[in-house]
Amino acid sequence: MNATIDNLVTIYIDGSAYQVKAGGHLLETCLGLAKDLPYFCWHPALGSVGSCRQCAVQLYQDAEDQRGRMVMACMTPVAEGMRVSLSATMASQFRKQCIEVTMANHPHDCPVCEEGGECHLQDMTLQSGHTQRRHKGHKKTYHNQDLGPCVGHEMNRCISCYRCVRFYQDYAGGDDLVVLGSRENVYFGRHQDGCLTSHFSGNLAEVCPTGVFYDKVVSDSYTRKWDLQSAPSICSHCSLGCNVSVGERQGQVKRVTNRYHSQVNGYFICDKGRYGFAHSNSDQGLYQAQVQPLGDTKKVTCDTLHGLDYVAQIMNELGAENVFGLGSPRASVEENFALQSVVGKANFYAGHNAIQDAIQTQVLHQLTQPDIYTPSLKQIEQADAIVIIGEDLLHTAPRMALSVRQASRNLGFAKAAAIGIPKWQDEPVRIHTQNQLSPIISVTSAATDLDDISSQCVHLAPNDMCDFARALASAVEGQFDGSGLSAKLHEQVQQSLALLAGAKRPLVISGASSQSPELIDLAAQLALALGRQSGSEAWLSYALEAANSMGLGLLNKDPKHVGDLALRVQQQSTPSALIVLQTDLFALSTQAAALCENLRHLVVLDQLPSATSDQADVVIACASSFETEGTYVNNEGRAQRYFSVHDKQSRPDAWRSLTNLAAMVIQAGPCSDAVTQLASCTKFDDLCHLVSQQGGEFAHWCDVAPSADFRIAGMKIPRQTHRASGRTSLYANENVSESKQPEDADSALGFTMEGTPINKPSALIPQVWSPGWNSNEAINKFQQEINGPLKGGEAGLRLLDISPNLPLAAAALIPSITIGAGQILAHTQNHLFASDRASALSAALKQRSTVISARMHPDTAAAMGLVDGAEVCVALAQAQWLLPLTVDASMAVDLLLLPSQYQAPISAGHLPAAVNLSAVTQEVN
Amino acid sequence: MSPVMYNLLNVVLILVCVVFGAALLTWLERRLLGIWQDRYGPNRVGPFGTLQIVADMIKLLMKQDWVPPFADRLIFIVAPAFAMFVVVAAFAVIPMAPGVGVVDLNIGLLFFLAMTSLGVYAVMFGAYASDNKYAMLGGLRAAAQMVSYEVFMGLSLMGVVMLAGTFNLRELVLAQADGWFIGPQIVGFFIFFMAGIAESHRTPFDLPEAEHELTAGFHTEYSGMKFAMFFIGEYVSVLMSAAMITVLFFGGWLGPAWFPPLGWFLLKTMALVLLMILIRGSLPRPRYDQLMSFGWKFMLPLALVNLLITGALILI
Amino acid sequence: MKQKTGLGQYIYIVWDYFYSNIVTLVKVASHTFTKADTVEYPEQMPYLAPRFRGRIVLTRDPTGEERCVACNLCASACPTDCISLQKTEDESGRWSAEYFRINFSRCVFCGMCEEACPTYAIQLTQDFELAEYERQNMVYEKQHLLIDGPGKHPDYNFYELSGKAVSGRAKGAGTQEAEPVNLKSLLP
């Protein structure tokens, strides 16, 4: 990557000299030099095991050596003066024979294989030159297993490369996918049929070089890769901002796959990101604007411009100062900015409740401190000691949990490196390190998925967590006296202190699901203390609430939340209106009903119906993140742009509706500058330009991704592949005359197949493809070096690094919750597949969500006279929720964990709170 | 029958016959070309496809009468009418049989030459008014070609005039009572035949409307009846050339008495028309420079030599 | 070409051109007496070669099941993009087309789809009489394309050879397939 790095060596490949980085192996070096060399068992993230014998090359002693010897490229470290040949007859014949043997048992089912057309095995077979099966014997067959709703299984296709188990067990920490059988009859599957439990199981479809593990959800309404119209997108399900590639066909989003970003998600995404796209196709979605004129009892559908015209009339009637806006951490920066401009900064509120707001403020306050650095997911993998406080990462920031899992191996890598074993030598490293793991301290209220790699698991109630963090921070500073702590906690702090003693690159992780602003603050104190102890920058990472929590926080630095809004509306004498952007007020706060009562008008911009849109008198249907463009700022402050995959005419972009609204408002009379400027925006780039004019973190907003004017050889970048089929037939049943392809004035991507497939800037790669490389493995043609950044630099912009601002203000303290008699403190238990409405609409994820139950420590349950499995009634204010109780000995005491569930009577936004809990007596009729 | 009525009948009958004959010629040509190319040609409408011309006529009449918005409207409309007019007017002097013929001018041959030279204006008008690059190129080619071929066309006939000593076409026919001029004026016939084909811009001298290079040359922008007038004008011109050759070189209506004089005239004319169609069906189109050098470097000297020798022979 | 110049050469060239044109005229005129090659189509059917490519059909395998497995290869091979289809799957795992549409107003009968088809499902027939008064009627759906027989390859049955278990054919029951591997066996 950088020619000035001193450890460069010169190697000769087929007679040509190359300057390459030392320390790597030949395979990745050759691939990094854009050479084609087949491989199966090696994976850039999993390292080399040298089992498939496919990457054989000829290695020569010196310039005189004509014969050489065959070596496996993936097992051979590059060395100065090395001479190799990829094209040598012996090596290429060997590769061809190897694949011929591999293919002897491979079934003849490519036409009915979901992997067909993007199959690594197909690519490599062609590359090695094998075309005809000469073996006339019988083909081996296997029985398949049912692996649940997400991943399908067709074991006949297996070539025994072991990639699946190496990913599933070694990389993702799963334990239910194993190798069975013996000799040449190995079998990759579970001990018995059943759903794969890992939350990263979807990656198997991408990891498997052939179609043994395939994406069942994609298969349900299957489209070949070449027929997908794709666009680069950002996952909207959590705050990490994983890069994804979204594929569409005939107006339906068909699949989401990983899109490589060296600093964020690398090669893998979680199952929620992969399978949680159904909301955009849902027939329950909002597709038309609805207006309920005053006095009417029913909403009537109308087109969006009419709806907006009605909103403009409302705004003119009530006066600009009486119209409020509620932004959303799920909406893009541009959408929030447009709403902020329409209603004015003073009238703009964040779609947060008091606690969320305090947490967000506190997070920004800490992350803008000069001594604190928030690492990317890739950097998290480099930490050698991690403290996780109050966050069940797997369920709130799953990809971060995967990074933590990789970080746990750092001790082993260091140990292996000490005796000269490079990191990519997968098996030797594992054998040498055995089970030694880097210290990971997990402080949570219940058992988590990361407990198996944690050196110390501490399960504490939220208040105790604060004590623990405070004590540990002072202990690291050497000022710990143990006063005021229970003996058990004291011992735990001492144990943690010992684990963290030698850390050179410590990291503290906390997050919004702790629902404690104080803990956010204490995590930062701990990070600073650890930073001082190790003599490095304090590394601190927060998992935030939603995809654009950080963006909304930066946009709305003078934080005002729903509670403030409710108070203001209540105190106001004049009638008021509220414009809500992609937020369900009722899930956010118990004050929602009162707020709606006091409003004259409620306008909702959303793509899915909610309790709030049911209450609203104007609903403007707006595009989901797959149908519009925008920018999310992830938990490390990285602004990343996503682009529309397809053009759904019936629901326009939310930002466009808001600019149209601004244009209608200025027609009626003089307005603020912000509205006038917004009204002048006709294209997305205009809006980005407006955002950048705010300065500060947003100063370089237009550089987040290339503008709509970007062209390669005078052409836009095609969303469709050059092999896309059916253009003159797809809609021929409706009208035999084809309509024009839609045009996209808002991005440099076109809804066509016209354009060049090469040299795309990294933010604008719809899907990876390179001649001869149809599978996702083609990514090696897009990287500067294997596992390195993409050519042309990584996409996105870390806003916190460029900001010249001083630390932002800390949040005001939140009064602590008082727990009355007969009450218990309830917290949220997040579940990856059930927590929000977007994933609730995915049939596959719905099947994988666990049984809904309240959880409690057996001692606490016993004290309250409850038993395991009992039906309990949880009451908070007016809301009541009947659900079964599960007792869990791993939990903290005096705590009730309520599942975070879409449309539950008590939603995550209402917690933490003191709730009444009573057993339900079964009435027999 | 009064002389006025007789003349009127003559005029009307000849006009109708000429135009219908030209229309029928379109069918005949297509059938003949078909036969020579091992096809059938139009054989579906009416007996042997003869009603094809009716079908074509209906089609042409039904077509939108379109004038391009960029065209010079007046000239655009006048041009095809003019093209039709000059060839039909030239027909007026052709004596078909004793008593059959519109006028009997004593300078009939000169009138004929004058009218055919006017034909170039129709082409130029059409090309110029179309405001189209292909039409313009076609118009330029037509002008150069017709002006060039006009020269030796006139010269080739001077031999005949010298032999007969008159410009009156009837007298010219009668002068052949002892022997057709094809004998002494074989070279003159050859030159006039070539020039006649070139004047009616037919293959192989159809460069002004060469489909492959100029779409349709000067009438690219024409459609419907306006196109038809150019088209029919071309076929009238073919008939006229054939009739003129009959009159000048093949003794007009003269022939054995067992066949009526008009019959002889039509028979000879038809035979020449067939020859012209055969030439169209066989010979390729030359390059433009070849066409011009053929005219100026071969035909013109040949015509002059022919004139010289004819004159010399008469003097001797 | 002769390099002589002068009047003799000039006359020779003139004669040569003149002669060749006369010969051409005679040869063309001689065709007056040859028979026309034209086939008078509606009354007289033309001879169609065995590999003539006309209307596209979808065939069935010897057991009467649809051969098309909705692999999309025909659609991707189609130079005019006039084929589109959607895969669906029955309970037993057998793939088939949910819809299969060919826009014959775009089809150029190139036969690439037939060549690309791995299951011999899509075949071009000898029927070329596809004229319609309404262009919309040129769009053929699956029910218009499916025929009852196997077409050109009467014995081919893709699922016999695919190794996939579908209804009526368990794992290992196909041609050249071994019994499913018994994982519990320790025998060599």
List the helices and strands and how they pair.
The complex is a heterotrimer of chains A (about 900), B (about 325) and C (about 190).
Chain A: E1 8-13, E2 16-21, H1 26-32, E3 56-60, E4 69-72, E5 83-85, H2 89-104, H3 120-128, E6 139-141, E7 151-153, H4 163-171, E8 178-180, E9 187-189, H5 203-207, E10 213-215, H6 216-220, E11 229-234, E12 243-249, E13 252-258, H7 271-275, E14 289-291, E15 300-302, H8 304-318, E16 323-326, H9 333-343, E17 348-349, H10 354-367, E18 372-373, H11 377-380, E19 385-389, H12 393-396, H13 398-407, H14 410-418, H15 426-433, E20 440-444, E21 456-459, H16 462-476, H17 487-500, E22 506-511, H18 517-534, E23 538-543, H19 549-555, H20 562-571, E24 577-581, H21 585-588, H22 592-598, E25 601-606, H23 611-615, E26 618-621, E27 630-633, E28 638-642, H24 654-668, H25 673-679, H26 684-692, E29 717-718, E30 749-750, E31 797-798, H27 799-802, E32 823-829, H28 837-840, H29 843-848, E33 854-856, H30 858-863, E34 871-876, E35 879-887, E36 896-899, E37 913-919
Parallel strand pairs in A: 1-5, 16-17, 16-24, 18-23, 19-20, 19-22, 20-21, 22-23, 24-25, 25-26, 29-30, 32-36, 33-35
Antiparallel strand pairs in A: 1-2, 3-4, 3-5, 7-10, 8-9, 11-12, 12-13, 14-15, 14-26, 27-28, 28-31, 32-37, 33-36, 34-35, 34-37
Helix pairs in contact in A: 8-24, 9-24, 10-18, 14-15, 16-17, 16-18, 20-22, 24-25
Chain B: H1 3-36, H2 52-62, H3 73-91, H4 108-130, H5 133-164, H6 169-174, H7 186-199, H8 211-214, H9 224-249, H10 261-282, H11 288-315
Helix pairs in contact in B: 1-9, 1-10, 2-9, 3-4, 3-9, 4-5, 5-7, 5-11, 7-9, 9-10
Chain C: H1 7-30, E1 56-58, H2 73-77, E2 83-89, E3 95-103, H3 112-116, E4 122-124, E5 139-140, H4 142-145, H5 158-161, E6 177-180
Antiparallel strand pairs in C: 1-4, 2-3, 3-5
Mind describing the biggest β-sheet of chain C?
Answer: 3 strands, antiparallel
Spatial strand arrangement across the major sheet of chain A: 15-14-26-25-24-16-17
User: Which sequence of SSEs, written as H and E, runs from N to C of chain C?
Assistant: HEHEEHEEHHE
- Shape type of chain C: elongated
The neighbouring-strand order within the major sheet of chain C is 2-3-5
- CATH architecture of the domain at 56-161 in chain C, by name, is 2-Layer Sandwich
How would you sum up the major sheet of chain A? 7 strands, mixed
Q: Which CATH class of the largest domain in chain A applies here?
A: Alpha Beta
- Any low-confidence stretches of chain C, pLDDT <50, length ≥5? none
What percent of residues of chain C are in strands?
Answer: 5-15%
CATH class of the domain at 56-161 in chain C: Alpha Beta
CATH topology of the largest domain in chain A: Rossmann fold
DSSP strand count of chain A: 37
**What is the mean predicted local confidence, pLDDT of chain A?**
90
Oligomer, anyone?
heterotrimer
Assign the CATH architecture of the largest domain in chain A: 3-Layer(aba) Sandwich
Kindly report how far apart the N and C termini of chain C lie: 85 Å
Low-confidence stretches of chain A are: 1-5
